[in-house]
Design brief:
The complex is a heterotrimer of chains A (307), B (328) and C (542).
Chain A lengths: L1 H28 L15 H10 L6 H13 L12 H36 L4 H15 L2 H15 L17 H26 L3 H8 L4 H30 L2 H6 L5 H10 L3 H29 L7
Helix pairs in contact in A: 1-12, 4-5, 4-7, 4-9, 4-11, 4-12, 5-7, 6-7, 7-9, 8-9, 9-12, 11-12
Chain B lengths: L21 H12 L18 H10 L2 H18 L36 H37 L1 H15 L3 H9 L8 H27 L2 H8 L4 H37 L11 H8 L8 H28 L5
Helix pairs in contact in B: 1-7, 1-9, 2-11, 3-4, 3-11, 4-5, 4-7, 4-9, 4-11, 5-7, 6-7, 7-9, 8-9, 9-10, 9-11, 10-11
Chain C lengths: L5 H18 L13 E6 L14 H10 L4 E3 L6 E3 L2 E6 L4 E6 L13 H12 L17 H4 L14 E5 L2 E5 L21 H5 L1 H6 L7 E7 L3 E6 L13 E6 L3 H9 L5 E2 L10 H5 L3 E13 L12 H10 L3 H7 L5 E3 L9 H4 L14 H10 L8 E6 L5 H16 L5 E6 L2 H9 L7 E6 L5 H9 L13 H12 L3 H18 L2 E13 L3 E2 L15 E2 L1
Parallel strand pairs in C: 1-10, 14-15
Antiparallel strand pairs in C: 2-3, 4-5, 5-7, 6-7, 8-9, 9-10, 11-17, 12-16, 12-17, 13-17, 18-19
Helix pairs in contact in C: 9-12, 12-13, 15-16, 15-17, 16-17
């Protein structure tokens, strides 16, 4: 187990460098950020050159990358154009996004798995068909359409919620945005659980358990669910990273000042330091979540052992 | 366990951006490859061996979901090729005086913010969306199955290298990548959008393909072919590919719908397709601020998009059910 | 086991929504009256809040509250009036003597002296300090030494600035510029306290100025809290307890928050909401002319656009645009069709003339078609109008302009929009002279002078002459006008220069932009100044 974890951690190193290099190059392709700093007019050439020098933009890209990574390892993620340290931006943005992600994951687990179990146990019944169609519709409508509709109906027409989230972003204001953010994943979790349950319902150990005369609830919880959750856990585990970095649309609609918003701003202003810094952290989260998921398998399925 | 790896590690699910829809593909595909050594071809124990495909086809022909979704897709393909069959107008001719007007005779869906006929634009938009979906899926499918099957077939160092490469591209949130990459192109065609989807989408198929090639590789008939001295190319093409491709097809069909949806999301964030291309994504995003006053401008193209995505996902779903003997 | 069915879904959604309403905030509440705090929409300034480094409206809002300079632009007329200046005198339009009023201090107690100004201006002009507004000091003698076009600066201070005594300093310009004192209301010319130079980082965290408000806290990317400075010595003290500037991710969201009662003031009402603004806000919606003009600039560096008969094509394009219809439909009359290249806020005396453009700005499809054909047709048979998609709702009007041109020319692809993803990239392509055709050019005046609407935009190689238009006759007229000591004659000469712009159609004027704002029932006395910025200090809380 320990060796396995160490090997996995070692494998993360090239992936980490690869991803950060990739995003670094991508942001660099966007061109010269200095041009956007002077409003609706040309920066005068002398100031522009001076700014480029200050941000290190006059160096070749590989050198910029090395300098940047060197700084990152000393905890210095650079400075945004407005003079704020990127680490400060992170300290503001990540707590908000983590709260939002937790709300979303909570809905995925509670609603998604429950619906999945119910439909999986009742394949072909009206309940199953109804939920199936509903999940398909949720998947088919783009998130920004869902978000705008929810904001319009709940926030303005009916006045049930505040249409936007205040800057402190308390948990209760994040419920609806979290639901919107989770909606697509929630539909997947439902479908995934359903498939998995339906498949395992025919497994020998479930038949055995039933034949033993165990109560139905116990069979479902102890035998069926535990084994069916593996693909679901995989999904949710990797979804954490996706939700955190992918909340650009949801955060924009509901005025949430989290990671997605900072990334969006960073891209619009071509602020390499912000974008690369946030993505670097997201990559780490993503890699660790993947590892965690793999370790969870062993808990869920005793047949799996890590050498 | 040839890989010394947990069986499920590489069947992990793609992190995607807010679109997120591509995740479905992964997860659904996984159920197929999961039972190791439990190849789908073992499904028919009947005396007269039928292939997996003919079994599936028999199944599909009777499945109403399949029939409906195929008909919808057929219809979409037809109007993509010949939009003038059902729309006589010109999607680019607009009269500002009619801006935001609702439904009226000859213009069933009303007019958009520029006074263009919404019905005509919805019909003409189908071509773009279907092109984006089909081309992106083809690209992702080809690239992904190539890398994936090579990694799965050869194992060892090539596998490690390709798998880490896959991880690298996985680490980048899709919507973010789209914003960055597409904000610099100034082509008015759909190809940059398709290219970006292929660039960030292939790891998803690659993982599926790798997993199912590993599974197929262990089958007796492949071992037999190896023992008989078949070349690597022959084994891969003749024996492994036909049996490993089912999950890829399933995932690809579902992913197709999500690419169409992703195009709209990119347009909403200002990085999608450009005029004079007519697309649902462009129309939905430009109508979205007017949702309070003139919801029809957004709801018709959004509805068309939803129906299209739905059709492809349902098709993929039906194909999956048909190909998975355990669910029969 | 009976799990939630579809009914369960609905029940859950209701419960969630109710919970949210129960706990969600309902506006700022708090004290009313004199000490009431106003919450206002904002977006994150791009640069640190230094006077000479802030060149966009959002940062400018804060600077206008925490600083007062020599002059202030009247919130109603836009005229430059003395604020801290006792007098600014000159005999030759080159040498100016500035006397400042006694009794002013910064909010940290430090006295505002002539040195506070001279040091601040020297700092702003010095290349080594990277100040983006440095060019504002370009008229002062010695600018080339502290801010050379290339290479290292050879001086650290402007030779044209001299402190005479505590309350007097002299300025020597490098050229004649009779209306130079009127430019001094711009925030780049604000004085700076000693603490700015002593501990720059600390000052940036907590800027200290001499205006009616103090910046109590600035949480970048989230909000800025400004509070009334009770000991403010100036005549225009704050009528409210303070202003909270709240950063919004999207101006649509800010507007919905205003409707929901969570916000007091939105000064950027999205075009899409203008149709319902009357029913949402009633008379709590204001729409005031501002010193902003939108134009289409042309890439004169592209030979296809710089042809001898090109002015006919450009005039034809101008006449193919139905400005009336677009301003009414797309902008719900928050824009006014342009009739010249300046702005109505200048007033007739200031150089605004609604007959100057004349026929060249009137919609006439037939004439437009004729002119374009006569001029050799559209370059390449198609024009692409470039704009950036990340700020403002430019797509709507660009598409409308294109449709108008297409309809006039009877060709559905004569004109297409060319969206560019980010403002930075848009500016980049302009800077690298890569514009494939006409492009969006908006101009918000820095100070209400006709000079500001012409020289920076059309003078050869001027800072905002993005199309690289160059015309000797125009340049000569501007030079003459600047040297003119009599204001009326100067304005007259500027107008002659503007006629050259018209005859050559150096840029197509589209419309004058109004400032629009909506506010809640909590506050009153809300107005917008000619820069379309709310006059924060006059807002009262009910």
């Amino acid at each position: 187990m320990g060796r396995y974890v160490i090997r996995r951690l070692l494998q993360m190193i090239p992936v980490f460098f690869g991803t950060t290099l990739l995003i670094f190059l991508m942001v660099n392709v966007m061109g010269d950020p200095v041009a956007g700093l002077c409003g609706d007019r040309q920066c005068d050439p002398a100031t522009a050159a001076q700014l480029r020098k200050e941000f290190g933009l006059d160096k070749p890209v590989w050198q910029q990358y090395l300098t940047y990574m060197g700084n990152v390892f000393t905890g210095d993620f650079g400075t945004a154009f407005n003079g704020q340290e990127v680490t400060e931006l992170m300290a503001d943005a990540f707590p908000v996004t983590i709260r939002l992600t937790l709300v979303a994951i909570f809905f995925e687990i509670v609603i998604g798995i429950t619906l999945g179990v119910v439909t999986g146990l009742r394949r072909g019944r009206p309940v199953d068909t109804g939920v199936l169609v509903l999940t398909l519709v949720v998947i088919a409508v783009p998130t920004f359409v869902t978000g705008l509709l929810v904001q319009l109906l709940l926030g303005i027409k009916w006045g049930w919620i505040d249409p936007s989230v205040s800057s402190s972003a308390p948990l209760d204001e994040l419920i609806v945005p979290g639901l919107v953010l989770a909606s697509v994943s929630l539909a997947y979790v439902t479908r995934l659980t359903r498939t998995s349950i339906a498949e395992n319902l025919r497994a020998d150990y479930v038949r055995t358990a039933k034949a033993k005369g165990l109560p139905r609830g116990r069979v479902i919880r102890r035998h069926l669910l535990r084994n069916s959750l593996i693909p679901v856990v995989t999904f949710i585990g990797t979804d954490i990273g996706a939700l955190m970095g992918g909340a650009i649309v949801t955060e924009r609609i509901f005025n949430i000042h989290g990671v997605g918003y900072q990334l969006y701003q960073g891209i619009l202003r071509q602020n390499t330091q912000t974008v690369v810094g946030f993505v670097t952290v997201l990559v780490i989260v993503f890699l660790l979540a993947n590892l965690l998921v793999d370790l969870l398998y062993a808990v869920l399925d005793p047949r799996i052992r890590y050498a | 366990m040839p890989e010394q790896q947990p069986p499920y590690e590489d069947s992990a699910i793609a992190p995607t951006g807010a679109g997120g829809a591509t995740d479905l593909a992964m997860s659904e595909g996984e159920t197929l490859e999961k039972p190791l050594g439990d190849s789908p071809s073992e499904g028919g124990p009947a005396a007269k061996p039928r292939s997996l495909w003919s079994d599936a086809w028999r199944d599909l022909r009777r499945n109403p979901v399949f029939i409906v979704s195929s008909l919808v897709i057929l219809f979409l393909v037809v109007i993509s090729l010949w939009p003038s069959l059902i729309a006589s107008g010109n999607p680019l001719s607009c009269d500002l005086a009619k801006a935001q007007q609702g439904s009226q005779p000859g213009h069933p869906f009303g007019f958009n913010g520029q006074g263009c006929d919404v019905y005509t634009r919805v019909v003409y938009g189908a071509r773009t969306s279907v092109t984006v979906g089909v081309c992106a899926t083809l690209g992702v499918g080809i690239l992904g199955s190539l890398f994936g099957s090579l990694a799965g077939f050869f194992g060892g160092l090539p596998d490690s290298l390709l798998s880490r490469l896959t991880d690298i591209f996985f680490g980048i949130p899709v919507v973010l990548g789209g914003l960055v990459l597409l904000s610099v192109v100034d082509s008015t065609t759909v190809w940059p959008v398709v290219g970006f989807m292929v660039l960030l989408g292939w790891p998803q198929i690659s993982r599926i393909a790798r997993g199912s090639v590993i599974t197929a590789k262990q089958n007796d008939y492949v071992q037999a072919a190896r023992a008989l001295g078949a070349s690597n190319t022959r084994m891969l093409l003749r024996h492994i590919a036909p049996n490993a491709i089912a999950p890829v097809i399933v995932v690809a069909t579902i992913a197709l719908g999500t690419y169409i949806s992703l195009e709209a999301t990119l347009s909403y964030l200002g990085a999608g397709l450009k005029p004079p291309t007519v697309s649902w994504g462009i129309d939905i995003s430009s109508a979205s601020p007017y949702i309070r006053n003139a919801p029809h401008m957004m709801l018709w193209p959004a509805g068309a998009l939803a129906v299209t995505v739905l059709a492809f996902i349902m098709l993929g779903d039906a194909v999956r059910d048909a190909l998975d003997p355990k669910l029969r | 086991m009976r799990g939630p069915t579809r009914a369960g879904w609905a029940a859950c959604a209701v419960a969630v929504a109710l919970a949210a309403t129960g706990c969600g905030g309902g506006g700022d509440g708090g004290a009313g009256g004199e000490d009431g705090i106003v919450s206002s929409s904002w977006s994150d300034p791009q640069n640190p809040l230094e006077p000479a480094n802030t060149n966009e409206v959002q940062g400018g809002k804060v600077l206008d509250m925490i600083f007062r300079g020599l002059k202030k632009y009247d919130p109603k007329t836009g005229a430059a009036t003395d604020m801290m200046a006792e007098s600014i005198e000159t005999d030759d339009s080159v040498n100016f003597t500035v006397r400042i009023k006694d009794g002013w201090t910064f909010s940290n107690g430090e006295k505002v002296t002539a040195k506070s100004y001279v040091d601040a201006w020297n700092y702003g002009a010095d290349l080594r300090n990277n100040q983006k507004n440095a060019y504002f000091f370009g008229y002062i003698d010695g600018y080339e030494q502290v801010h050379p076009e290339s290479g290292e600066p050879s001086a650290t201070s402007l030779s044209g600035l001299k402190v005479v005594d505590d309350l007097t300093f002299t300025v020597k310009l490098s050229q004649k510029f009779s209306t130079w004192p009127d430019t001094l209301g711009y925030s780049a010319f604000a004085p700076l306290p000693q603490s700015f130079f002593d501990d720059h980082d600390a000052w940036l965290d907590q800027p200290v100025g001499n205006g009616p408000y103090t910046l109590q806290s600035y949480d970048r990317g989230t909000k800025a809290e400004l509070r009334r400075w009770d000991d403010y010595p100036g005549p225009d003290g704050a009528q409210n307890g303070g202003i909270d500037l709240m950063v919004y991710t999207d101006n649509n969201t800010a507007y919905t928050d205003l409707i929901a009662g969570n916000l007091d003031l939105v000064d950027d009402i999205p075009a899409a909401q203008l149709r319902n603004v009357g029913s949402d806000l009633g008379d709590r919606y204001i729409n005031t002319p501002a010193g902003i003009i939108q134009t289409l600039a042309f890439p004169f560096y592209d030979d296809a656009w710089d042809t001898p008969d090109g002015n006919k094509v450009r005039t034809g394009i101008s006449r193919a645009i139905n400005r009336e219809q677009i301003t009414e439909t797309i902008f719900q009359s928050t824009r006014t069709p342009a009739k010249d290249w300046t702005s109505p806020v200048l007033g007739e005396d200031g150089g605004f003339d609604d007959t100057l453009c004349g026929d060249a700005c009137e919609y006439d499809p037939a004439e437009a078609k004729r002119l374009i054909e006569e001029g050799g047709g559209l370059p390449g048979g198609q024009i692409k109008i470039s704009y950036n998609t990340d700020t403002g709702s430019h797509k709507d009007w660009v598409d409308a302009v294109c449709n108008s041109i297409n309809n006039a020319l009877g060709d559905d692809q004569a004109c297409i929009g060319n969206p560019i993803g980010t403002f930075a990239d848009f500016r980049n392509q302009i800077g690298e002279q890569r514009m494939p055709g006409p492009f969006r050019a908006g101009w918000q005046m820095d100070y209400p002078l006709i000079q500001n609407f012409l020289q920076p935009l059309y003078y050869t190689n001027a800072s905002s002459n993005d199309g690289k238009w160059s015309n000797q006759e125009f340049d000569d007229l501007v030079d003459r006008a600047n040297a003119e000591t009599d204001t009326a004659t100067a304005v007259d000469t500027f107008q002659q220069a503007e006629e050259v712009v018209r005859d050559q159609m150096a840029a197509v004027p589209l419309w004058y932009q109004n400032g629009s704002a909506g506010y809640s029932e909590r506050i009153s006395n809300v107005t917008l100044n000619p820069f379309s910025v709310p006059v924060y200090n006059e807002i009262t809380v009910n």
